[in-house]
Design goal:
The N and C termini lie far apart (about 70 Å). The chain is elongated. It is mostly helical. It contains 3 helices and no strands.
Length: about 70
């Protein structure tokens, strides 16, 4: 079956937007110090999840609990 023929078989005219689209993750680049990465990698290995997922869970918890960051510059 040719590619063009296959496209004609699908009708998306009544399709609906993905209700979970807002919950999808967005890929970014972030610079973290090695000590922070090592810490999360160790914690992640102890609980058996990828360290990036653990960082995401931690940040999501901060957002959900409206955690206020206290910054003191020396």
């Amino acid at each position: 079956m040719a590619k063009d023929e296959m496209r004609n078989e699908y009708d998306f005219s009544s399709s609906k937007p993905n209700p979970y689209a807002k919950k999808l993750k967005k890929q970014i680049t972030i610079r973290l110090d090695e000590a922070s990465i090592d810490y999360f990698k160790q914690q992640a290995s102890e609980v058996g999840i990828p360290y990036q997922s653990l960082i995401n869970l931690y940040l999501a918890d901060c957002v959900e609990s409206h955690k206020e960051l206290k910054v003191a510059w020396s």
